[in-house]
Amino acid sequence: MYHQSKGDPLMEFDYEPGRYYHNDADGRLVAEVTFQTLQNGRVLAVDHTFVREDHRGQGIAGQLIETMITHAQNHQAKILPLCTYAKAFFQRKPEYADIVAE
Fold this sequence. Notes:
Elements: E1 14-16, E2 19-23, E3 29-38, E4 43-51, H1 60-74, E5 78-81, H2 84-92
Parallel strand pairs: 4-5
Antiparallel strand pairs: 1-2, 2-3, 3-4
């Protein structure tokens, strides 16, 4: 479940343990969010959000965090925002307070 804002195009992300990411056609990293699984999978600590400079300002970082929210919901987990972007995202969006780990 992705939430689109301001007509931004949705980006599809690949998954591997501890990471959602998107590479361009040349295999270069465009965007990623990384996380650590804590407390036997009950908490996902988001420790890094990255969007390549030429793709910034398109809402991609927000899509990464929303992907993490969906992942957490599907695994009955909470999110512990550690990186600056994740912290700011959850401060701006109190509607997600219930998914944030104390």
